[in-house]
Amino acid sequence: MIKGIDVSSWQGVVDYRKVKASGVDFVIIRAGFGRETSQKDNCFEQNYKNAKAAGLDVGAYWYSYADSAEDAVREAKACMEVIKGKKFEYPIYFDLEEQSQFAKGKAFCDSVIKAFCGELEKNGYLAGLYCSTYYLNNFVSNNVAGKYPLWVAQYNYRCTYTADKYGIWQYSDEGRVNGISGNVDMNYGYTDYPTIIKNGGYNGYKKPVTAEKKTVTQLAKEVIEGKWSNGDERRQKLTAAGYNYSAVQKKVNELCEKMKIDKIAHEVIQGKWGNGEERQQKLTDAGYDYDKVQARVNELMKKQ
Known about the structure:
It is a single chain. This protein is of the alpha/beta class. The protein has two domains: 2-200, TIM Barrel, CATH 3.20.20; 216-303, no CATH class. It has 13 helices and eight strands. Helix 11 (245-269) packs across helix 13 (290-303). It is elongated.
């Protein structure tokens, strides 16, 4: 779990060295809002510069007022103009929380999310979605929410959002941190975005040159050993490292199946599954492919 905050001009001047010393690891900074670059957050430049100087990992968010998918694209372009030339270790988030947007329904919300995030992705950014649990559950489709890194807001002792994995949970808007006068939003991070972003060459970073690419089989074995995490994080890490996730996962499944058959074949040789028709019936009842198991038994017996 990684500690973080998010800030805007509402926090005024922030002493990020004190923030860093207090145990905070990352900060998500409001870059601006709306469709014009003139709507850049008044404190964005100083927040970015000083947070970086203090050694904090940085992300950004853009508060949306989009009333159409086309408008969301304009917001994305304004956001990119504001953050151009900078490097971010955390995603660039589309901040969806205006009641006028939710009033237009789930299909509308899906459309503006995809429009904004898609525009950023086309230009080399890892784009994410910020939204509260209630509105995610009721106004955003699961397949759309699952496409992007999620930053979920729920002011509670735990986050109850379960439809998709979230990378950051904003758990309070009344936090107090050294270096900030007044309240500040508090967050817990659960995903190693800096590694994903740097290895993937997103958000202003250049993708590192890999001297030697690993084979699908090598990667599959590493996945089985637990070196590439699980679920969406595994997909993100493999993709960010330049590998074909689907090919690797297919090989993982094949190796796991082979390991399972090997284990059962050894048990057959040890006499744990009977003989003849009894063996066939027991293996079939247990859900195993008898022909595959028996073929492996024959292979092993030849080697003895």
